[in-house]
Every structure is written in structure tokens, then in C-alpha cells.
Amino acid sequence: MNSNRSSRLQPNLDGLVDALARQGWGVTDSLVDGEQSARLRRRLRYRLKSGSFRDAAVGRAATRARVRAVRGDRLCWLNDTAARGTERLWLDQLEQLRLALNQSLFLGLRHWEGHYAVYPPGAHYERHVDRFRDDDARVVSTVLYLNPSWRAEWGGQLRLYPEGQAVQDVEPAVGRFVCFMSANLPHEVLTTHHERLSIVGWFRRD
Ligand SMILES: O=C(O)CCC(=O)C(=O)O
Ligand SMILES: [Fe+2]
């Protein structure tokens, strides 16, 4: 069990770290296997059923209609101290990545915060950057996708707009992990035609 656990914590982080340094974003399918994705998906479903999800927010004064026009996801925050089992494993993997990023890129990342996200059919998240004007603590954004057998016709791609590079569309395929610099990489979630499941988060420097 222990060796299995530690081997799962040693994926090819170098490629991801290099990509982030070189182009400001990186994608890998080898961080999380099918079994772990399925376990995380079950946790998400359990939390959804138990009523732990809330509508996402945008600005403090935004009306519900305005929020829907900007982003249609519902979310449930992951609580570090309460995390057990598969959620604990996921947080441990993110911790390995945090250390690797700090070691290679000197980003000074202190911790990760994040939430499960569900986009119901018809939902999207319009183009934005993840760093708030009044809060610059978010440094690296992370997304892990949890839907099995995603189909291209369902839409729901993450569209990245890296400066000086071609626009990149990332399919939300199961177990796929994306990370990018929070401060300066505009991105959007294209309208999804199928319920879209993920864990979104940010490495912070505060
Ligand atoms: O789910 C995604 O692909 C990205 C979500 C996102 O941009 C966000 O929650 O800030
Ligand atoms: Fe975002």
C-alpha cells in the first residue's frame, strides 16, 4: 500500500513544471489514474447529494442573473483538515507539485485551496483571469477533470489564451490535469452540453 501510494506521488512532474515555466501552462494525463478519478467522482457525487454545493459567486454586488451570465458552475470547497482517503491522496499529490514548483521555479507557493465544480448542461464560464484585482495571492491555477468518456460534441472545453501563442482548447477528459499561471493567462469554459465535473484550485503565496 505504501509503495503504491508513494509511486502514485512520483508521476512525471518535471514535464509539467517545464511546460509551466516555458509557456505558462501545462497539461498531463498521468498524474491521476482511472481508479482515483472514479473515487474522486464518487466523493463529488456524495457531496452533491448531501447538499454541500453552492452557486458560484462573481463580485460582491452581482445579482444572481448577472452571475449566471458570467459563470454557471456550482461548487463545494475542499476542506484540508477534513480530507480523508482519496481526497487526502489528491491533496498529497498537489503538495508534491507545490514543492516541485517551488524548487524549480521559486514561486514561493505556500498552500493550495480548491473546490469541486459542477457545470450543469448549458453552463459556461466567460473569459477571465483567476487573480483578483484586490487579491494577488493566487499564483498557479489547477484543474482536474472527473467525467468519464467525455465526448467532443458535449463542448465544455477549457479555452486558454496564452499571450503570443495559439489559442489552446483542452478537452475535459477524465484524469486530465491542467495548470497555468493565474495572473496573466486569460481563459474560459465553453458552454457544456453535458454535466461537467472537476476539481479547480489555486496555489497561493499567502
Ligand atoms: O473548469 C475549468 O476548466 C476552468 C474553471 C475556471 O476557470 C475557474 O473556476 O476559474
Ligand atoms: Fe478560471
TrEMBL record:
Q: Does the keyword Iron apply?
A: yes
Q: What is the lineage of its organism?
A: Bacteria, Pseudomonadati, Pseudomonadota, Gammaproteobacteria, Natronospirales
Domain Fe2OG dioxygenase: from-to ranges: 105-205
Instruction: Read off the PANTHER family from this record.
Output: EGL NINE HOMOLOG-RELATED, HIF PROLYL HYDROXYLASE, ISOFORM C
Protein's UniProt name: SM-20-related protein
Q: Does the keyword Oxidoreductase apply?
A: yes
> What cofactor does its activity depend on?
L-ascorbate
Which keywords does this Swiss-Prot/TrEMBL entry list? Answer: Dioxygenase, Iron, Metal-binding, Oxidoreductase, Vitamin C
